[in-house]
Amino acid sequence: MAVRVAIAGASGYAGGEALRLLLAHPGVEIGALTGNSNAGQRLGTLQPHLLPLADRVLAPTTPEALSGHDVVFLALPHGQSAAVAEQLGPDVLVIDMGADFRLKDPADWERFYGSAHAGTWPYGLPELPGGRAALEGSKRIAVPGCYPTAASLALVPAYAAGLVENEAVVVAASGTSGAGKAPKAHLLGSEVMGSMSPYGVGGGHRHTPEMMQNLGAAAGEPVTVSFTPTLAPMPRGILATCSAKAREGVGAESVRAAYEKAYADEPFVRLLPEGQWPATGAVYGSNAVQIQVAYDPAAHRVIAISALDNLTKGTAGGAVQSMNIALGLDESTGLSTIGVAP
Ligand SMILES: NC(=O)C1=CN([C@@H]2O[C@H](COP(=O)(O)OP(=O)(O)OC[C@H]3O[C@@H](n4cnc5c(N)ncnc54)[C@H](OP(=O)(O)O)[C@@H]3O)[C@@H](O)[C@H]2O)C=CC1
Ligand SMILES: CC(=O)N[C@@H](CCC(=O)OP(=O)(O)O)C(=O)O
């Protein structure tokens, strides 16, 4: 029998991507769709690419609208999920695509988000060590941020295998949809098109503690991360270039072997053949992640590069993958590794 799914925040980018994927999921029936300022609008005017749902009208995001579902996806701004989630029963699978329940340390949350910490839920990145076990049968899932997904998949194998020192550098370029649909001054079309620019430089980006949490868990000791995000003139995609100093005795062969072992059986993570490099264009609209790793003998550093679609594996695809595990379905149901090109 199909599970009945509601989407809160169906007018936004993350909610829209969840709907795009769930429309192709054979085990799902799409129930309530809610919005905030766009409640009362037809979905067809807000998400014209979701043709089968064009005549559905958005309800306001209320407990009444979201009740009576097996699964509720929350695609709301930071800080809005906790109040909605606590109105949903313990038997409902609640999947938060926002940040509210990702961090374990309340001090990290307060420092980077500036409000009281709502709590910590099982983390929706199955590829982490122990990641699947944490999701099986769970009724609450915190979907990772898009940059932490990219950086963690790039560097966790190196930390889990003890290949690198505990200071990582991550420089990542993101497409503009990462910033959401609401208008923002730094996202004016004429200024973004044809230009790349950094932001959140100097340790200020809120995804930094999330990366440190994931890499520290893999290493078994604290890892610091220097993270610099950049905005790239493309709608979707993240290319994360990550590096850390290699430990004594580490070389190209041991690095390659660790990554081959880590990703041999992963359905969505593809370690590319040597000499081929990840590209955002190759994972557009798919749940796949491309990874390549290299050892730089002069700098004695491990360089790991990942490419993913921020809205798919970086948000809604990761959410559906985690939902599948929580419900005991095949993890890949409704998800594709086939991109769109050119
Ligand atoms: N975009 C991305 O690549 C990623 C996004 N996420 C997370 O997903 C969540 C949604 O992001 P995204 O879709 O990009 O953002 P959008 O701005 O595109 O969408 C936000 C959604 O939240 C609704 N909303 C706005 N304010 C409120 C409120 N006060 N109460 C209830 N609903 C509200 C909006 O409704 P309406 O339009 O009707 O006002 C809209 O449906 C965020 O937490 C974001 O961090 C996570 C990873 C990556
Ligand atoms: C390009 C861009 O602006 N990206 C967003 C990250 C999007 C994401 O993953 O988000 P959440 O933590 O908000 O869920 C940013 O840097 O704020």
Describe what this molecule looks like in 3D.
The chain has 11 helices and 13 strands. It has 342 residues and is an alpha/beta fold. The chain has 2 domains: 3-143 and 313-327, 3-Layer(aba) Sandwich (Rossmann fold); 147-310, Dihydrodipicolinate Reductase, domain 2 (2-Layer Sandwich), CATH 3.30.360. The strands form 2 sheets. Strands 8-9-7-10-13-12-11 form a 7-stranded mixed β-sheet. A 6-stranded parallel β-sheet has the order 3-2-1-4-5-6. Helix 2 links the parallel strand 2 (28-35) and strand 3. The model has no long low-confidence stretch (mean pLDDT 97). The structure holds NADPH dihydro-nicotinamide-adenine-dinucleotide phosphate (NDP) and N-acetyl-L-glutamyl 5-phosphate. Residues 9, 11-15, 35-38, 61, 75-78, 80, 97-99, 145-146, 177-178, 180-182, 310-311, 314-315 line the site of NADPH dihydro-nicotinamide-adenine-dinucleotide phosphate (NDP). NADPH dihydro-nicotinamide-adenine-dinucleotide phosphate is lined by residues 9, 11-15, 35-38, 61, 75-78, 80, 97-99, 145-146, 177-178, 180-182, 310-311, 314-315.
